[in-house]
Structures are given as C-alpha cells and as structure tokens.
From TrEMBL:
This is Cytochrome P450 55A3. Belongs to the cytochrome P450 family. It comes from the Eukaryota. InterPro entries: Cyt_P450, Cyt_P450_B, Cyt_P450_sf. GO terms for molecular function: heme binding; iron ion binding; monooxygenase activity; oxidoreductase activity, acting on paired donors, with incorporation or reduction of molecular oxygen. Keywords: Heme, Iron, Metal-binding, Monooxygenase, Oxidoreductase. Residues 93-112 are annotated as: Disordered. CDD domains: CYP105-like.
C-alpha cells in the first residue's frame, strides 16, 4: 500500500539551421503565403523543422491558426524574453485577438480565469494566495514525502516483478506526479485511484474529445465537493488555505476556489508525467550520460536542468495579445494582435546555447535562461516542486533498477500527436 499523506545526436544548429524537409517547406507555403501553426514535429520528440528555418530567416513572423485567424510567432530567445516580460502584452484570454490554438482553447477562454490568465495587479494578488505553499523552504519540507512516494512505487514494481513489460507511465510517472499534488491539495487517500484515472483520460492525447471533456467535468465536480467539505472541516492543505483565508472571509467566491484548486490539480500533471518519460528515453538515447548518472546520482540536478531545456514543458502555452502597438524584431505588432512565444524554439537557439540540438547535461551555463517552466512573472508557480520531483525520480530510478531497459526499440516509442506538446503516451520497460 502506498504511504500517502497530505503535505502541510546532432550537430550544432549553426551548421544545420538551413536543413529543412520538403514537407516542412510545403507547410510554410500556404496559398495565403502564411504558414499554418502549430507546426508538426518531423519524428519523435524533435522540434518542428520550421523553427530552425524561421530563426535563421524571419524570427518574428505571422502564422495562420486553426480558425483562419493570424498571430505573430516569435522564435528567437531574446525576442521571447522580451515578449514574456513586456507589460504592454496581455495574458488575458478573453481579450479580442488572443491566439487560441483549437476549439477547446476557445471554449476554455470563456470560463472564469485563474491567475495564470490575468495581468497585473490581479495576477500577483491571486498568485500570492498560494505562492508560499511552493516556496523553496516548503518544497524542501516536502522532499522526504516525495522520496517516500517514489520509493514505495518502485517497491511495488519490484515486488510484482516484470515477467511482462511494465508501463512506466502507469506504474511510476503518473502516480508520482498525481500523488504529490493530491497530497498538497488534501485529497483523501481512498480517492486517489479515481482521480488518477480521470486525470489520465483528460490528458491522454488518444482519448476522445467526449471522454476528455467528461473527465474534465468529473474532476471539477470532485474539487467542488472537496471545497464544500473544507468549509466545515478545514485541514492543513491548500484547499483549506483557500477556503479559510479567502473564501470564508469573502475575498473570493466558491467558483474561484474551485478553479484555482483545479488548476493546481491538472496544470502540471501531464507536463510532469511527460518529463519523466522523456527523461528516461533521453538517457537511453545518450548511454554515456546514463552510465554517469548511474555511477553518480548526485548528477540528477544538472540532468534535469538540461532535460528542461531540451524538451520544453508546455511549449504551446506561452501566448499573449498586444494591448498597444509595439515594435519587436523590426516588425510592428498592432494592438489586438496575438503573439505566440515559441519557447521550444528559443531553447534551441544557437546564439544562446552552443550545439543546441545535442543533449549535454555537462554544458557550461552562464546567465542564459532555458524556458523550462516559463519566464518572467508568469513563470510556473510550482517550478521548484516540479524540478524537485524530477531530481528525486532520476537520482533514485536507476539506483533501484540498474538493469532497467526499454521494452521497445527507440524508434517505436509512442509519442503524442506531432502538432501537440511533446509527450509519451506509454513506455514499456523491463529490468
């Protein structure tokens, strides 16, 4: 039984940026002369080839979205930093011109926003309601519990054995990510299986739209019930904090508490699961660095740092809309025009990262910032927690299972659809 308790390969892009496939060039040559976005990855986890082409030729350019609307795409590191720190640009999704990437996003924009979709001063005010829960000191206090969760999950895997391949998504990645945030929220242990199942359906790229929507609603309904329960039975968890400090005094409404708790439940779940899976595959793609990590698990922090650069989390989430006319990269972006900051492209910018298409956990780092979990004031509030979870997983996994191997060839790993954020839907392993 899991001990769960609430917690109070390639050359430098300088020589390869002009290499782009005929398929990618075709996608950039629509009848209107404006490429369609999102671009598709050519294979596996490799970024879309169009990014390298645009970094070299047109780093601030227009793209066409799913509904025929247009937005500006920004692909160079320095320009992305500018976008993510410019207060003349808005994060509010209900502003006309905000670039939504599909119909689901357009519908989500109609809902009451959480702090991630607010501008100053509302953003900092709402973020401040939960920020101290994710402080460095608070996360350090969580470390033993996270370690215990990882150890217990691996104990169960080892006990059950591997006569047949085991899906590491189901047995490790998903429960580590889920149980940690559930503990912070104060979810009762008996509800873990139900919530983990719903979260998996919601974030699984192969799920039908109807199933994903129903799972989303089931999670919202569950959080609503937990908020109501904490009004009369507060505990030392995040939902209780929102209820006692904000809801009961009348600073926020019930829907606000539900949406904020729901955001914490789902926002980092799929990203964390994918980063664990991508990290495992990346190590097998770089066997010398895997051997080093096995010998010295203390290398986990620098491995995680490079992992967050190489496989950008939530690469399609960094979007803005201009509140006034601005100039960026020599282009005039008018008020009401949307902007997509391609952080995945910025993390492969050869002007900032030497040999950016090579995974190297030993790379020398200066003042440059990788867009692992955002940048600027909208940087993920739980970034420290995410990095801690990843460090614990990768300092532990190959120590406990030194003979761990993928049960499928690298070229048969199942990745998320090529036009979505990079992820892995299932990953069979043996040991």
């Amino acid at each position: 039984m899991l001990a769960f308790r609430p917690i109070s390969s390639l050359s430098s892009s300088k020589s390869s940026v002009f290499r782009i496939s005929k398929t990618a060039l075709k996608s950039m040559s629509t009848t209107a002369g404006t490429p369609k976005f999102p671009f598709s990855r050519p294979r596996g986890a490799e970024p879309a080839e169009e990014y390298a082409h645009l970094r070299a030729t047109d780093p601030v350019s227009k793209v066409e979205l799913w509904d025929g609307s247009q937005a500006w795409l920004v692909v160079k590191h320095k320009d992305i930093c500018s976008v993510l720190t410019d207060e003349r640009l808005s994060k509010q999704r209900n502003r006309p011109g905000f670039p939504e990437l599909d119909q689901g996003g357009k519908e989500a924009a109609k809902r009451k926003p959480t702090f991630v979709d607010m501008d100053k001063p509302d953003h900092m005010k709402s973020r401040g309601m939960i920020e101290d829960i994710f402080s460095r000191e608070a996360i350090e206090r969580m470390r033993p519990s996270i370690q215990n969760t990882v150890d217990t999950l691996l104990d169960e895997m080892i006990k059950d054995g591997c006569k047949n391949p085991v899906d590491v998504v189901e047995k490790l990645a998903l429960p580590v990510a889920s149980y940690t945030i559930y503990g912070i929220l104060g979810v009762p242990f008996e509800d873990l299986k139900f919530l983990t199942h719903q979260a998996a359906i919601r974030s699984n790229g192969s799920a039908t739209a109807t199933a994903a929507s129903q799972a989303n609603q089931d999670l919202l309904d569950y959080i609503g019930g937990l908020v109501d329960k904490r009004v009369s039975e507060p505990n030392g968890d995040l939902i209780s904090k929102l209820v006692t400090e904000q809801l009961v005094p009348g600073h926020i409404q019930r829907d606000d508490a539900i949406q904020m708790a729901f955001l914490m439940l789902v926002a980092g779940n799929a990203t964390m699961v994918n980063m664990i899976n991508l990290g495992i595959v990346t190590l097998f793609e770089n066997p010398a660095q895997l051997a080093d990590l096995k010998k010295a698990p203390s290398l986990a922090p620098i491995f995680v740092e490079e992992l967050c650069r190489f496989h950008t989390a939530s690469a399609l989430a960094t979007r803005r809309v201009a509140k006034v006319d601005i100039t960026l990269g020599g282009k005039t972006i008018k008020a009401g025009e949307g902007i997509i900051a391609a952080t995945q492209s910025g993390n492969r910018d050869a002007d900032v990262f030497q040999n950016p298409d090579t995974f190297d956990m030993y790379r020398k780092r200066g003042t440059e910032s990788a867009f692992g979990y955002g940048y600027g004031e909208h940087r993920c509030v739980a970034e420290g927690l995410a990095r801690t979870e990843l460090e614990i997983v990768f300092s532990t996994l190959f120590q406990r299972l030194p003979n761990l191997k993928l049960a499928v060839p690298l070229d048969q790993v199942k990745y998320s659809p090529p036009e979505r954020d990079v992820g892995i839907t299932e990953l069979p392993i043996t040991w």
